[in-house]
Specification:
This protein is mainly alpha-helical. It contains eight helices and no strands.
């Protein structure tokens, strides 16, 4: 029963983080576009977010096994609060070069935070799923990933709405305050030893020796890169600058898109099960 409780707490914290993650993307993009940043300058604002997310994805599981999922989750939430606070201090009169460098550093913290919390939530699923139950694990991960994207879509809408109603800095402080409450709750409620490996994994265990897994990882890297080329900056800027949409309209459109994407991810196991007769995919290429 404690495993279920811990999983619910971790998932609730992850969902709360995901709302701020989606909202932050809209806030940064629309605010800096409004004050005159070009699409290329906007793309640089998100460069470190993506890069350090990749680095954290590589190292997160190894770190979590050594220090525990509670530490990685609370650390991720804390980094996101720090990133929100940093971004709230940016002023329009700053030189562009200074603003871009400063925002890139804050976005790097947010990228690390995102993947630390995501890794913690997905790893916590193993507490519920019996060892060897690959089909159940696949379904649980798909549901969690789908719900994450659906909530990130809600975050896009929230970001556009907050920017229109509260303004840039007040929106960031409001999200930081809400996340602090979640952080304190997680720190007080979760057991210290959750997710710690009994034996410390070697650093070499980070690298897979499976050819199939490495091919799938490379394909995923290029797949998400191709998506972000147009989705992260180009589409929102086009909707705002060319079509004249309001912040709330841009956020709503992107929210519906990502929510639909999340629904597809959540039902993926059922669709794949039609071909695999209920078995989990084995990762073969």
């Amino acid at each position: 029963m404690s495993g279920v409780r811990n999983y619910i707490l971790v998932t609730a914290a992850y969902w709360s983080f995901t709302l701020t993650d989606g909202a932050l993307r809209m806030l940064v993009l629309l605010h800096f576009h409004r004050i005159g940043y070009t699409p290329v300058e906007l793309a640089f604002l998100f460069l470190f977010y993506e890069f350090f997310g990749i680095v954290t994805n590589l190292l997160g599981g190894w770190v979590g096994a050594r220090i525990g999922l509670k530490a990685t989750l609370v650390g991720g939430l804390g980094l996101q609060v720090a990133a929100l606070a940093m971004l709230a201090f940016v002023l329009p009169e700053w030189p562009k070069a200074v603003s871009v460098a400063y925002v890139m550093v804050a976005q790097a913290l947010s990228g690390i935070a995102k993947d630390l919390t995501k890794m913690s939530a997905k790893s916590a699923i193993k507490v519920l799923v019996p060892e060897g139950a690959h089909a159940s694990l696949f379904r649980w991960v798909a549901v969690l990933t789908g719900s994450k994207n659906a909530l990130k879509g809600v975050g896009y809408f929230l970001g556009g709405l907050l920017l229109a109603v509260l303004g840039y800095a007040h929106s960031l402080w409001a999200m930081a305050a809400g996340l602090v409450l979640i952080l304190v709750g997680a720190a007080l409620s979760l057991p210290q030893e959750m997710g710690k490996a009994r034996t410390k994994p070697a650093f070499s265990s980070l690298f897979s020796t499976s050819r199939d897994l490495n091919i799938l990882a490379a394909a995923r890297f290029f797949l998400f890169g191709a998506r972000d080329v147009w989705f992260v900056v180009a589409v929102p800027v086009f909707l705002s600058a060319t079509l004249g949409w309001s912040f709330t309209q841009v956020g709503t459109f992107l929210a519906l898109w990502v929510i639909g994407y999340g629904v597809v991810q959540a039902v993926a196991p059922s669709v794949i099960g039609l071909w695999t007769r209920g078995d989990a995919p084995q990762g073969g290429t």
